[in-house]
């Protein structure tokens, strides 16, 4: 049971955690801060928070749990602001999609005594929608949440972070900060780059209006993630640059390989590459039943 | 009303056209040929065809409409086989995803007198599933079908092809063969390459098992088209090589542009590219309501 939750960043992730806790009666009061006044007011209107406040510092005062859910590059200034106001017994955790730079920011702005309180986390759940209106209480149910504890963490703080996510139905796993950033570069960040890049490339074609008229269901699914929030994804790509660029290069090598096979009209080679990819993809998901 | 329809290739596209015509009582008998005996038998079992036959030549004998729905690179030999048996009044049309090489194959294997009977077509409808079991009667309803008539076509043949598709609920458009192949390279063939390539690249990582465990909803949607039939897509990529490779190069340039922006930590530049892509994508489709 949380007495007072401080929520910093009142969008899809922050709002959904709050709704999930409230629905289960697991939190007393939720105090919320977000950059824009209108977001704070909307978050209260939607019942995501009980009390909007004017700064992150004010939000954390007296809170026993602090959850930070802003875009990752904004977290450095959040840590700097809340550091002096944190209760020494408070659990601090976050939902950022990149962990290395968030941990670095926390260590820079929090006192070494506070490092032990910060348990970094990342829920592997989301949609391409954002803002307070996108939040819903069941977002995390049966989804993985990766925690990347740091060596300074007090074991009790890690346990509290695990309990927090399990209490809203998530499956909690733990891994290294760097390993997290590597795996997510492959599975999430690179696909987003590929989709944003493809839509961007097509929109540079002179005949783009004509081209997009003939986009079918396959394109709709493929490009859905290019509808994601540009600011959030800008932050992720820049924050995880060191893992993302080698992964992008790996993809570029593969596209060049495919290019050569097609240029040589090597039907067998192209088919093998496609068939191997299909086998991997089909093994990941049960056969689709929907007609898309 | 079609008296006898010859169906060559008994998978998703051919089977769906037949089911749609049958359901509406628009066809007398459907005679079907497909490479494998088991496919022919299954197609009869499912009611896609009334009578399986042992060759494409046998299928077209006495047919007033011939529909070819094999992978595109198989069409050359189909034309060669059926040429001598075609009724001079028969409409010949196809559902191949590439048109340039299909027209070339038709001109090579049909007699010039028969060129006028062949009206090339491409339904912009499909799923990632294939084979006779994937067929369903409503596949083409409210979907576009592009016809790419050739100069030799008798106007009556074009009209009959238009009527055929409209009678099953499709929206028929006409364009140039080459323009078709250019537009579809952008909208359909390149996205498939990008998705197959990405899954393939990830599956080459040593840590692939670990990586794929953390694939979330965005990856599922993005990679759905990498579950498509490898043989069909091999054929499309090789057949449309001349339009596809420049389009792939255009994509590679865009990915390199993104790479540079990220390498320079140019947050504003990355955000602008993402925001422009999102705006284009959002304008194409109504806001998604599903949580994926
Ligand atoms: N969406 C996903 O699929 C997903 C999944 C897992 C993790 N994440 C991570 O979760 C975090 C939040 O993502 P989200 O999807 O919830 O994004 P979101 O819906 O856009 O919400 C982010 C919120 O942060 C606020 N904000 C932005 N800059 C701020 C600042 N400097 N100080 C205080 N508040 C600020 C925004 O409110 P204003 O209107 O006030 O600017 C917005 O309400 C990100 O770090 C993201 O990487 C996202
Ligand atoms: N799927 C889509 O999204 C889509 C959309 C628009 C257009 N198209 C085009 O439509 C055509 C058919 O695609 P589809 O999705 O229906 O594929 P499909 O479900 O795999 O069906 C193709 C059929 O052709 C048969 N076949 C293969 N090689 C043959 C040959 N040499 N002679 C005779 N039959 C042969 C296969 O049967 P066996 O078991 O006998 O080999 C199979 O039943 C392709 O040209 C494709 O480009 C597909």
Summarize the structure.
The first copy, chain A, is an alpha/beta fold and 292 residues long.
The description of the largest β-sheet of chain A is:
6 strands, parallel
CATH topology of the largest domain in chain A: Rossmann fold
The order of strands across the largest sheet of chain A is 3-2-1-4-5-6
Structural class of chain A: alpha/beta
Bound molecules: NADP nicotinamide-adenine-dinucleotide phosphate
Helix amount of chain A:
40-55%
Primary descriptors:
binds NADP nicotinamide-adenine-dinucleotide phosphate; 292 residues; Rossmann fold; 2 domains; 52% helix; 6-phosphogluconate dehydrogenase C-terminal fold; homodimer
Q: What report would you give on this structure?
A:
The structure is a homodimer of 292-residue chains. With 292 residues, chain A is α/β, with parallel strands linked by helices. Chain A has 2 domains: 2-175, NAD(P)-binding Rossmann-like Domain (Rossmann fold, 3-Layer(aba) Sandwich); 179-284, 6-phosphogluconate dehydrogenase C-terminal like domain (6-phosphogluconate dehydrogenase C-terminal fold, Orthogonal Bundle), CATH 1.10.3660. Chain A is built from 13 helices and 9 strands. Chain A has helices spanning 12-23, 37-45, 56-60, 75-82, 100-109, 112-115, 155-166, 177-203, 208-213, 217-223, 230-239, 241-263, 267-284; strands at 2-8, 27-33, 51-52, 65-68, 91-94, 118-119, 121-123, 144-147, 171-174. Chain A has a 6-stranded parallel β-sheet with strand order 3-2-1-4-5-6. In chain A, helix 8 (177-203) packs across helix 12. The longest helix of chain A is centred in the middle third of the chain and has 27 residues, at 177-203. At the A-B interface, helix 8, helix 9, helix 10, helix 11 and helix 12 of A face helix 8, helix 9, helix 10, helix 11 and helix 12 of B. One NADP nicotinamide-adenine-dinucleotide phosphate is lined by residues 8-14, 34-36, 39, 69-72, 74, 95-97, 122-123, 126, 130-131, 134, 229, 232, 236 of chain A. Chains A, B: Pathway: Amino-acid biosynthesis; L-tyrosine biosynthesis; (4-hydroxyphenyl)pyruvate from prephenate (NAD(+) route): step 1/1. Chains A, B: Its EC number is 1.3.1.12. Chains A, B: One of its GO terms (biological process) is tyrosine biosynthetic process.
